[in-house]
Amino acid sequence: MEIPYLNLSVQDDSRRRELLDAVETVLLHGRLILGPEVEELEQNIATLCGRRRAIGVSSGTGALWLALKALGVGPGDEVITTAMSWIATANAIAMVGAKPVFVDIGADLTMNYNCIEAAITEHTKAILPVHYTGKLCAMEEILTIAKKHNLKVVEDAAQAFGATRNGKVAGSFGTIACFSLNSMKVLNAYGEAGIIVLDDETIAEKLVSLRYNGTINRENCVTPSLNGRIDTLQAAMVLVSLRHIQDKLARRREIAAFYTEELATIVTCPQVDTNELHSFYTYTIQTPRRDALQSFLEEAGIQSKVYHPILMPYHSAYQDSGTWNIPQAERSVQEILCIPNHENLREEEVQYIVKKIKQFFS
Ligand SMILES: *Cc1c(COP(=O)(O)O)cnc(C)c1O
């Protein structure tokens, strides 16, 4: 059996038809830039996140950069974030001219809120938690710390569309929240896209301006910025994805529950508490025998992934950024392995993956 980690080709005939119909509609009306589908997507996402506004942008990275810029974070400021994420998180902070301050993670791989207060200085402007793997950070605790120290909170919800904690969805907690909609993400475009959600109308208008070269009425530039608009074509296809998102999340959660039931005694499985729903962008197991397990699975035809094998502060670009106390992240990064967990996996594939992992440990 050959099981790829993820296959982005659209095999399902009716889904492909739906997507092509959506594309055809856009080609016929011709409003390729900020067309009606962009507005429809923004309204739907704002509603789903319980927010006043949503602003479609060209990527998740762009969303983070624009969010920080709109909040006035810049040179001389510090932003506290996690050590473990895709480098886009740190890059967005660096690209507004601020300094990323990295704190450790907990056993669940998300930011350890107990480490935040010790990292706060007079220069700290914001906290940027990442709902890593699709599990929400301890947002109540993080918001309490932010309020006490008068800090903004920008959620990096790139991996967490549809995840909830105490009944509240990803993207509904921070001052601003950012989603990536790239083709690998849970809510996906067919290419690059992202979206920002928030409540503050003034900041929302600033974001609308910043996403198009910092212009007012697309003419007079009031703040130098870049072009970060979302394509109408991508928005139209994300709307198709949105119609099916609940089924997709349900199937991923079902597979995840089966994995956990079968594997929890031999590897560390994702921790899902009773007050939360995971979005399972990845199903990430942890084991000290990670490398050997990955090779064993490869030989059995099962592709697995080590997402982000370099902690953000240890990328070459950040090597001189400081010394960081991140022992849990240093340990976990050696042990994490993402196994296939997507809606198109067949039952016998899921069974086979479990069988092979058990075989490795027996
Ligand atoms: C994917 C991702 C991003 C960046 O999103 P793009 O749309 O690829 O630019 C940022 N942060 C995290 C945690 C991500 O997983």
Task: Give the topology.
Elements: H1 13-29, H2 36-48, E1 53-57, H3 60-70, E2 78-82, H4 88-95, E3 99-103, H5 116-119, E4 124-128, H6 139-148, E5 152-156, E6 164-165, E7 168-169, E8 176-180, E9 194-198, H7 201-210, E10 215-216, E11 220-221, H8 232-243, H9 245-263, E12 276-277, E13 283-286, H10 290-299, H11 327-332, E14 336-339, H12 347-361
Parallel strand pairs: 2-3, 2-4, 4-5, 5-8
Antiparallel strand pairs: 1-9, 6-7, 6-12, 8-9, 10-11, 13-14
The structure holds pyridoxal-5'-phosphate.
Determine the structural class based on helices, strands and strand pairing. Answer: alpha/beta
Strand content: 5-15%
Q: What oligomeric state do the depicted chains represent?
A: single chain
Order of helices and strands: HHEHEHEHEHEEEEEHEEHHEEHHEH
Main sheet, how many strands, which sense, barrel?
Answer: 7 strands, mixed
Q: What is the end-to-end distance?
A: 21 Å
Give the strand tally: 14
Number of helices: 12
The low-pLDDT segments are: none
Average residue-wise pLDDT: 97
Could you give the order of strands across the largest sheet? 1-9-8-5-4-2-3
Q: Residue share in helices?
A: 25-40%
